[in-house]
Amino acid sequence: MGNNIRITKQFSFETGHALYGYDGKCKNVHGHSYKLSVTVIGKPITDNTNVKFGMVIDFGDLKKIVKEEIVNVFDHATVFNKNTPHVELAKELQDRGHNVLLVDYQPTSEMMVLDFSKKIGKRLPKHIKLHSLKLQETDTSFAEWFAYENN
Fold first, then answer.
1. Does domain 5-149 fall into CATH 3.40.1190.20?
2. Catalytic hit among 14, 68, 76, 127
3. Is 36 exposed, middle or buried (CB count within 10 Å of its CB: 0-12, 13-18, 19+)?
4. 5-17 and 30-42 beta bridge pairing
5. Domain limits of the chain?
6. Beta strands in 1-76 (DSSP E)
7. Measured between alpha carbons, how far is 127 from 112 in angstroms, rounded to an integer?
8. Any idea which positions bind Zn(2+) (predicted)?
9. Average pLDDT, stretch 112-130?
10. Mean pLDDT confidence for 98-117
């Protein structure tokens, strides 16, 4: 009988982006109030001398990792694909004091959630595995990443 438990913590951040070469409105610089759900899986700590006894992971510890890797980086930043002519626009914005993030992918929800899975996964304690991520761009649109589909 397994004792694996999934723990989820939700985060939100405001981020701007533009999709270079896209054939719709999202080619223009715009922003979203993103909601990110991070789900990890593990067994509750059974050592009753451990201050984290009964926890899979302290929500505070998970929060620290996700804040450092994702929220503090992406919040109130504008994300551009650095492999496009948007790099010139990004430089202009940076020169004017704007918070710009240059990534080596098209900043869609799909590609962002893939990036987040790598960044969060490498920071988790050994006994904790990243189970899934859900990145909500609007009330009705989101991208999901599941570990078991990406082994």
1. no
2. 76
3. buried
4. antiparallel
5. 5-149
6. 5-17, 30-42
7. 25
8. 17, 30, 32
9. 97
10. 97
Look up residue 37 and give its two tokens. Answer: 């759900």
pLDDT at 122: 97
Residue 1 confidence (pLDDT) above 70: no
CB 131 within 8 A of CB 121: no
Q: Note if 88 is an active site residue.
A: no
How far apart, in Å, are the Cα atoms of 140 and each of 10, 18, 83, 93, 137?
Answer: 17, 19, 29, 30, 8
- Give residue 53's pLDDT band: very low, low, confident or very high (50, 70, 90): very high
149 noted as active-site residue: no
The β-bridge partners of 73 are none
Q: Is 30 annotated as a binding residue?
A: yes
Contact 103, 124 (CB under 8 A): no
Read off the tokens for 58.
């302290």
Task: Identify whether 26 is a catalytic site residue.
Answer: yes
